[in-house]
Amino acid sequence: MPHVVVHYFQTELSAAALERVQQSLVQLLQQELSCPDGAVSIDLQPIAPAQWQQQVYQPLIVPRMAELLRRPDYRY
User: Fold this and answer.
1) Tens-place pLDDT, residues 44-57
2) I want to staple 13 with a disulfide (CB 3.0 to 4.6 A). Which of 17, 43, 58, 76 is the partner?
3) Domains identified in the chain, total number
4) What are the φ and ψ backbone dihedral angles of 28, each rounded to 5 degrees?
5) Is residue 72 part of a domain?
6) Domain CATH for 32
């Protein structure tokens, strides 16, 4: 039962773009984790760039830096 949370800089995404993101993530997770379509949930969370360090980087990235599948190439 994968649940994906994607934090991203706040931007306008069309309905078509949201659908492409959803379909791409679900397809990838189904393929790589062998899970059914209905098991995947996705939460897109737009964050204002000025709030990134406080809401995402410090509380979510820094404590898990060693465990991240992919680390960012920026630091605050």
Assistant:
1) 999 999 999 999 99
2) 17
3) 1
4) -65, -45
5) no
6) 3.30.429.10
In a domain, 54, yes or no: yes
Q: Which long-range contacts (CB under 8 A, 24 or more apart) does 46-54 make?
A: 46/7, 46/8, 46/9, 46/10, 46/11, 47/7, 47/8, 47/9, 47/10, 48/9, 48/10, 49/9, 49/10, 52/7, 52/9
For 29-76, what is each residue's pLDDT tens digit?
A: 999 999 999 999 999 999 999 999 999 999 999 999 999 999 999 988
Q: Enter the tokens of residue 67.
A: 């465990």
Token pair 């991240």 in the structure block, residue: 68
Range of the domain at 18: 3-67
